[in-house]
Amino acid sequence: MERHEDGYTLVELVVVMLIFSIVMVLISVSFNRIVAGSSRITKTVETDIGGLIGLELLRYDLELAGFGLPWSLSGATYQETDRGAMVAGHPKTAAVSFNDEPPAAPMAFKSGNDVGYNGSDYLVLKGTALGMSGTSRSWCYLNYSAGKTVIMPSKSGTELTPGERERTIVVRNSVRSGSVRRELVTVGSTFTLFFDAELNEAFLPKNGEDQYLVYGVALPKDNNALAYPFNRSDYYISRTDDMTPSCAPYTGILYKTTIDHDGGATGTTPYPILDCVADLQVVFMMATSSDGSLVAHNDISGFEVEELRDLLKEVRVFVLVQQGKKEPGYSYPVSDPEKAMVVGDRVWKKDDLLRNGWLDYRWKIYTIVVQPKNL
Description:
Distance between the termini: 109 Å
Order of helices and strands: HEEEEEEEEEEEEHEEEHE
Number of domains: 2
Oligomer: single chain
Largest sheet: 8 strands, antiparallel
Helix content: 10-25%
Shape: elongated
């Protein structure tokens, strides 16, 4: 019987191994691309979610700036803070420099142009509803009827209820000589009404023509009065030692910081709202043109509070945020080297991006536009 012993030659085995190796390399490259793409998409989505949450808080505060602010202090005096620089190494971010100066009425908006980290802006918002408690978003009416004060609900969803001893202010609305007035009700040097079971009569309306509003400012805290008759939130960028490693060099954290009524003149509470932030720019659109068109102003320190109420029509905030992590082989697209990125009134050149090592990252500019309704 004839016997056959067929098999593979060495050349055939080498060819098969070569084909197998090529296929495995292609699969590995494709898999790595899928993983890298998935990681980038995941990180980008995380950035978008963080931006939506954090920047929605900023938008909300911008809309509430001015809420409950009196237009006249009736002789009341106060000091908001004596806190120095909020951003280390940037002396012009001193919180004290954005204080109001009684007897002038408080300003709903204040800002420092290019004074912060990376030359970013420093934004200050003021109003009773800018605190971090439900009390700061509560208010009600005080009316005079049948020889006594009647508490009328605001029907705003959050109501002040006597007995909780929340720290509030009282504002008297009136019209004199055809002009509207919003005066802070004071008793001597005191401007705080503790919203107790029995209200201090000195703060209450005395006739049917009086229209009083009570605004919640802070939660009850012992028997301490308010430090000042509103809440204040400062927005700025600062870089910390424990920054997220995936953040690009020279980026920081966008903070909201409240100036505490309970912590004395220096008390502050910072809230981080967004990571990997490179720039914050604020532009105030004012009706200062003779033809009625809006004019962009980066600095409103020269305007009086009455002018701000009349002329400020729009506030625009621009935030430059890193999207995803550093990507080897990626380069941020730049069509004009002199205008690589435009953030509000700020122009970043390609040289700036190279110097900061930012070309290896993806970037997004978030824009918030608000028309103030509470001035």
